[in-house]
Amino acid sequence: MSGAGGDALAGSDARPILVIGLDGAEPTLVFDRWRDDLPTLDRLMHAGVHARLESTIPAITVPAWASMMTGLDPGQLGLYGFRNRADRSYDNLVIANARSVTKPRVWDRVSAAGGTVGLVSVPQTYPIRPINGDVVSCFLTPSAASEYAHPPSLKAEIESWIEGEYLVDVPDFRSEDKARILRDIYRMSEQHYEICRRLLSRRRYAYFMTVDMGIDRIQHALWKCMDPAHPKHEPGNPFEQAIHDYYVHVDARIAELLELVPDETLVLVVSDHGAQAMLGGICVNEWLVDAGYLALRSRPVVRTAMEAAGVAWGATRAWGEGGYYGRVTLNVAGREPSGVVPPERYEAELTDLAARLEAIPDPAGRPLGSAVYRPEAIYREVRNVAPDLLVYFGPLTWRSVGSVGMGAVWTFENDLAPDDANHSPFGILIVHDPHRPGSGRRIADQRIYDIAPTLLGWLGLPQPSGLRGRPMELLG
């Protein structure tokens, strides 16, 4: 790190903060398997502390980054995944973009206190909300034609800095065209880090945060190529080293960013969740049909989205959603439009259903080790329309498959598009304070909810009431 001085909060002597997010970075790779090949991250670990970072339930990008930056859990935020029920109807699902995050995030508080903020590709920053500083929005941006930058003039500057059209995400990263996906990941990465370098070179920020989505994308696309434990691994395939090489690439880009921030900068490297091999999928709605919970007007014999299969809602007691984890909802009389489960039977039905979901075995009849959660048991409050159950199949080594017509409860193909990896419940946390260097310890697991209050403490900002998280004692 180099340079001197930096933007400070109004009336504060707080030091600048740099948060480097690596979406999906897996701790077993960073801390153990590849540490010697990641000299920048290794140096930060040696000079600070590091730990696994326990993610939200569910352990996915949305809501994990929002929880990290607010100190609130998904129930407090009312966000249970990328798509959430807007109301109690059966088909009104909405994407959780920036408008869905109604609570202040760290940068909102920094901006309000007079500090200059820089954000690049942080999830749920589209549509843009003006702040005191610079914003380049995230993968939820519809396209490069969208207004993805603040101030608006920044968009034209970005287009002059990069080659070709700005990639808001890797197009179609769930496909079998692995060579093209890999090219696009590196192209997106070069654009991403060029924008970060340009911004950090010309301005000092009280708080700068960027999130690299390439790690998440390359793991979903190519995990089977790397991992001998993956059921579809082919030894000697041409992409065996691709994920390793991308981690090495990112490590070098991080080194470049560190050279551009003041020497006194507090640095955090964090991931919202980890990654692991996807062993298969549980066709949750197929199972619900077989178990008598979900009624279809006619059962498809080819893969069909549940909503296109014709659900007989008046005869349905429960239905599920697909994704890296499962969401299951009871069809309750007086709550859903065609509900059939009597309210007085709700608790008994839900308890029985949870136990039966947890007991679904693997194809050989062995226990999967699944976990089923009730929102009111794991969140401080439950806002908006939550599912009745959240299901980790495997745990999280099997995804939830929502389609019907799959022909079995178990599948070894994603129903949407090829996907090699599922998420794991722990991401990474690396903390480097140049004023307190040298411990190099791996400390006990930390919680994602504690990041925001810790950052606010370092920035000298008040701790809001009602947070799920609390400031961490990391460097004592």
Task: Briefly characterize the structure.
It is built from 13 helices and 21 strands. The chain has 476 residues and is of the alpha/beta class. Helix 7 (178-202) runs antiparallel to helix 8 and helix 8 (214-226) packs antiparallel against helix 9 (242-258).
Topology:
Blueprint: E1 17-22, H1 27-33, H2 39-47, E2 49-54, H3 61-70, H4 74-77, E3 83-85, E4 93-95, H5 106-112, E5 117-120, E6 133-136, E7 149-150, H6 153-161, H7 178-202, E8 207-212, H8 214-226, H9 242-258, E9 266-270, E10 274-277, E11 280-283, H10 284-290, E12 318-321, E13 326-330, H11 346-358, E14 371-373, H12 375-378, E15 389-392, E16 398-401, E17 410-411, E18 421-424, E19 426-432, E20 441-442, E21 446-447, H13 451-458
Parallel strand pairs: 1-8, 1-9, 2-20, 2-21, 5-6, 5-8, 11-16
Antiparallel strand pairs: 2-19, 3-4, 6-7, 9-19, 10-18, 11-17, 12-13, 13-15, 14-15
Helix pairs in contact: 7-8, 7-9, 8-9
Q: Give the oligomeric state of the chains in this entry, treating copies of one chain as homo and distinct chains as hetero.
A: single chain
| Class per helix and strand makeup | alpha/beta
Q: Count helical runs.
A: 13
**Number of E strands:** 21
Q: How would you state the average pLDDT, rounded? A: 95
